[in-house]
Write a sequence for this structure.
Protein backbone atom coordinates (compact mmCIF):
# COMPACT_ATOMS: atom_id res chain seq x y z
CA UNK A 1 0.00 0.00 0.00
CA UNK A 2 0.98 3.60 -0.41
CA UNK A 3 2.78 5.33 2.36
CA UNK A 4 1.18 8.14 4.30
CA UNK A 5 1.10 11.29 2.20
CA UNK A 6 2.42 14.64 3.24
CA UNK A 7 -0.05 17.37 4.04
CA UNK A 8 -1.05 19.07 0.78
CA UNK A 9 -0.62 22.69 -0.08
CA UNK A 10 -3.79 24.76 -0.13
CA UNK A 11 -3.69 24.74 -3.93
CA UNK A 12 -3.69 20.94 -4.01
CA UNK A 13 -6.55 20.85 -1.55
CA UNK A 14 -8.68 23.13 -3.67
CA UNK A 15 -7.87 26.30 -1.75
CA UNK A 16 -5.67 29.25 -2.74
CA UNK A 17 -2.26 29.51 -1.12
CA UNK A 18 -1.86 32.49 1.22
CA UNK A 19 1.61 33.28 0.00
CA UNK A 20 1.39 37.02 0.34
CA UNK A 21 2.62 37.75 3.85
CA UNK A 22 5.06 40.14 5.52
CA UNK A 23 5.20 43.81 6.34
CA UNK A 24 5.23 44.87 2.70
CA UNK A 25 1.99 43.06 1.95
CA UNK A 26 -1.33 44.79 2.54
CA UNK A 27 -3.54 41.76 1.98
CA UNK A 28 -4.67 40.09 5.15
CA UNK A 29 -4.18 36.35 5.36
CA UNK A 30 -7.60 34.74 5.44
CA UNK A 31 -8.11 32.26 8.23
CA UNK A 32 -10.31 29.20 7.76
CA UNK A 33 -12.72 30.40 10.46
CA UNK A 34 -13.34 33.58 8.44
CA UNK A 35 -14.60 31.57 5.49
CA UNK A 36 -18.17 30.36 4.96
CA UNK A 37 -18.69 27.02 6.73
CA UNK A 38 -19.92 25.21 3.62
CA UNK A 39 -20.07 25.57 -0.12
CA UNK A 40 -20.96 23.25 -2.99
CA UNK A 41 -18.99 23.81 -6.18
CA UNK A 42 -20.40 22.57 -9.47
CA UNK A 43 -19.00 22.42 -12.99
CA UNK A 44 -18.23 20.26 -15.98
CA UNK A 45 -14.50 19.74 -15.45
CA UNK A 46 -12.32 19.97 -12.35
CA UNK A 47 -8.75 21.29 -12.25
CA UNK A 48 -6.09 18.65 -12.86
CA UNK A 49 -4.27 19.43 -9.59
CA UNK A 50 -7.44 18.63 -7.63
CA UNK A 51 -7.90 15.32 -9.44
CA UNK A 52 -4.29 14.23 -8.92
CA UNK A 53 -4.47 14.81 -5.17
CA UNK A 54 -8.10 14.16 -4.21
CA UNK A 55 -8.72 11.06 -6.36
CA UNK A 56 -5.45 9.32 -5.57
CA UNK A 57 -6.37 5.94 -4.05
CA UNK A 58 -3.96 6.05 -1.11
CA UNK A 59 -4.56 4.17 2.12
CA UNK A 60 -4.05 7.24 4.29
CA UNK A 61 -6.19 10.16 3.15
CA UNK A 62 -4.47 12.84 5.21
CA UNK A 63 -5.48 16.34 4.13
CA UNK A 64 -8.20 15.15 1.77
CA UNK A 65 -11.08 16.97 3.42
CA UNK A 66 -13.29 17.26 0.36
CA UNK A 67 -15.48 14.94 -1.67
CA UNK A 68 -15.28 15.19 -5.45
CA UNK A 69 -18.19 13.54 -7.24
CA UNK A 70 -18.21 13.23 -11.03
CA UNK A 71 -21.55 12.07 -12.42
CA UNK A 72 -23.09 10.77 -15.62
CA UNK A 73 -26.90 10.68 -15.88
CA UNK A 74 -28.40 8.73 -18.76
CA UNK A 75 -32.12 9.39 -19.06
CA UNK A 76 -34.27 6.89 -20.90
CA UNK A 77 -37.73 8.03 -21.91
CA UNK A 78 -39.53 10.15 -24.48
CA UNK A 79 -36.57 12.50 -24.51
CA UNK A 80 -33.41 10.44 -24.06
CA UNK A 81 -30.52 12.52 -22.81
CA UNK A 82 -27.12 12.30 -21.16
CA UNK A 83 -25.75 14.87 -18.75
CA UNK A 84 -22.49 15.01 -16.84
CA UNK A 85 -20.61 17.23 -14.44
CA UNK A 86 -18.99 17.27 -11.02
CA UNK A 87 -19.73 18.39 -7.49
CA UNK A 88 -17.26 19.35 -4.77
CA UNK A 89 -17.85 19.92 -1.07
CA UNK A 90 -16.01 20.94 2.09
CA UNK A 91 -17.15 18.14 4.44
CA UNK A 92 -18.73 20.71 6.76
CA UNK A 93 -22.46 20.33 6.16
CA UNK A 94 -24.36 18.55 3.37
CA UNK A 95 -21.95 16.56 1.21
CA UNK A 96 -21.63 16.27 -2.54
CA UNK A 97 -23.81 13.14 -2.52
CA UNK A 98 -26.60 15.12 -0.87
CA UNK A 99 -26.13 17.96 -3.32
CA UNK A 100 -26.63 15.58 -6.25
CA UNK A 101 -30.05 14.51 -4.96
CA UNK A 102 -31.01 18.07 -4.01
CA UNK A 103 -29.83 19.97 -7.09
CA UNK A 104 -28.96 17.66 -10.00
CA UNK A 105 -31.51 14.83 -9.99
CA UNK A 106 -34.56 17.15 -9.67
CA UNK A 107 -33.59 18.79 -12.98
CA UNK A 108 -33.86 15.46 -14.81
CA UNK A 109 -36.99 14.36 -16.65
CA UNK A 110 -39.66 13.32 -14.15
CA UNK A 111 -41.08 9.82 -14.44
CA UNK A 112 -38.26 8.58 -16.68
CA UNK A 113 -35.63 5.97 -15.91
CA UNK A 114 -32.28 7.40 -14.89
CA UNK A 115 -29.09 5.34 -15.05
CA UNK A 116 -26.64 7.24 -12.87
CA UNK A 117 -22.93 6.60 -12.46
CA UNK A 118 -20.83 8.37 -9.87
CA UNK A 119 -17.03 8.50 -9.82
CA UNK A 120 -16.26 9.60 -6.27
CA UNK A 121 -12.95 10.33 -4.58
CA UNK A 122 -14.06 8.34 -1.49
CA UNK A 123 -17.06 6.24 -0.50
CA UNK A 124 -20.07 7.91 1.16
CA UNK A 125 -20.29 8.52 4.90
CA UNK A 126 -23.01 6.88 6.99
CA UNK A 127 -25.45 9.80 6.63
CA UNK A 128 -24.99 9.99 2.85
CA UNK A 129 -25.38 6.21 2.59
CA UNK A 130 -28.75 6.51 4.33
CA UNK A 131 -29.80 9.25 1.91
CA UNK A 132 -28.78 7.07 -1.04
CA UNK A 133 -30.84 4.17 0.27
CA UNK A 134 -33.87 6.43 0.74
CA UNK A 135 -33.56 7.80 -2.80
CA UNK A 136 -33.31 4.34 -4.36
CA UNK A 137 -36.32 3.03 -2.44
CA UNK A 138 -38.39 6.10 -3.25
CA UNK A 139 -37.48 6.37 -6.94
CA UNK A 140 -37.94 3.00 -8.64
CA UNK A 141 -36.71 4.45 -11.93
CA UNK A 142 -33.30 5.30 -10.47
CA UNK A 143 -30.34 3.00 -11.07
CA UNK A 144 -27.15 4.02 -9.29
CA UNK A 145 -23.60 2.75 -9.71
CA UNK A 146 -20.91 4.26 -7.47
CA UNK A 147 -17.26 3.94 -8.41
CA UNK A 148 -15.04 4.99 -5.50
CA UNK A 149 -11.33 5.75 -5.36
CA UNK A 150 -10.99 5.02 -1.64
CA UNK A 151 -13.10 3.50 1.13
CA UNK A 152 -13.98 6.04 3.81
CA UNK A 153 -13.46 4.79 7.39
CA UNK A 154 -14.07 1.24 6.20
CA UNK A 155 -12.83 -0.34 9.44
CA UNK A 156 -15.73 1.14 11.43
CA UNK A 157 -18.63 -1.35 11.96
CA UNK A 158 -21.20 1.42 11.40
CA UNK A 159 -19.60 2.29 8.07
CA UNK A 160 -19.49 -1.34 6.99
CA UNK A 161 -23.20 -1.70 7.83
CA UNK A 162 -23.94 1.43 5.78
CA UNK A 163 -22.12 0.01 2.74
CA UNK A 164 -24.09 -3.23 3.04
CA UNK A 165 -27.35 -1.32 3.30
CA UNK A 166 -26.54 0.50 0.06
CA UNK A 167 -26.01 -2.81 -1.69
CA UNK A 168 -29.30 -4.15 -0.31
CA UNK A 169 -31.09 -1.03 -1.59
CA UNK A 170 -29.86 -1.79 -5.11
CA UNK A 171 -26.80 0.42 -5.34
CA UNK A 172 -23.86 -1.09 -7.22
CA UNK A 173 -20.61 -0.35 -5.39
CA UNK A 174 -17.28 -0.70 -7.18
CA UNK A 175 -13.67 0.30 -6.55
CA UNK A 176 -12.19 2.40 -9.34
CA UNK A 177 -9.74 0.51 -11.54
CA UNK A 178 -6.83 2.28 -13.26
CA UNK A 179 -9.03 2.44 -16.38
CA UNK A 180 -11.72 4.27 -14.42
CA UNK A 181 -9.25 6.91 -13.25
CA UNK A 182 -8.23 7.36 -16.87
CA UNK A 183 -11.91 7.75 -17.86
CA UNK A 184 -12.36 10.50 -15.27
CA UNK A 185 -9.17 12.17 -16.46
CA UNK A 186 -10.39 12.26 -20.06
CA UNK A 187 -13.98 13.24 -19.37
CA UNK A 188 -13.99 15.35 -16.21
CA UNK A 189 -10.57 17.02 -15.87
CA UNK A 190 -9.66 20.37 -17.39
CA UNK A 191 -7.03 20.42 -20.12
CA UNK A 192 -4.88 23.40 -21.01
CA UNK A 193 -6.45 25.56 -23.69
CA UNK A 194 -4.80 25.33 -27.06
CA UNK A 195 -3.02 22.10 -26.19
CA UNK A 196 -3.80 18.53 -27.08
CA UNK A 197 -5.28 16.51 -24.24
CA UNK A 198 -2.51 15.15 -22.07
CA UNK A 199 -2.46 11.41 -21.50
CA UNK A 200 -3.32 10.07 -18.06
CA UNK A 201 -0.20 9.09 -16.14
CA UNK A 202 -1.04 6.52 -13.44
CA UNK A 203 0.78 6.80 -10.13
CA UNK A 204 3.16 4.02 -9.14
CA UNK A 205 0.90 2.11 -6.72
CA UNK A 206 -2.46 2.64 -8.43
CA UNK A 207 -3.00 -1.06 -9.27
CA UNK A 208 -1.79 -2.26 -5.86
CA UNK A 209 -4.12 0.13 -4.05
CA UNK A 210 -7.05 -0.83 -6.26
CA UNK A 211 -6.58 -4.50 -5.41
CA UNK A 212 -6.30 -3.65 -1.71
CA UNK A 213 -9.57 -1.73 -1.63
CA UNK A 214 -11.32 -4.22 -3.88
CA UNK A 215 -10.49 -6.99 -1.43
CA UNK A 216 -11.71 -4.94 1.55
CA UNK A 217 -14.98 -4.06 -0.15
CA UNK A 218 -15.61 -7.68 -1.10
CA UNK A 219 -15.08 -8.72 2.53
CA UNK A 220 -17.50 -6.06 3.76
CA UNK A 221 -20.25 -6.82 1.25
CA UNK A 222 -19.92 -10.61 1.49
Amino acid sequence: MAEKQEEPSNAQNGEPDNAEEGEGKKKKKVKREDLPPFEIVTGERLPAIFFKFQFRNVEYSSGRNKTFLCYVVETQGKEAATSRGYLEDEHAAAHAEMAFFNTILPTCQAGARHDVTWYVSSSPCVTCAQRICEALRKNKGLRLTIMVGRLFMWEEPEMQAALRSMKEAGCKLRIMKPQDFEYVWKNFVEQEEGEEAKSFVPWEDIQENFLYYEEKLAEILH
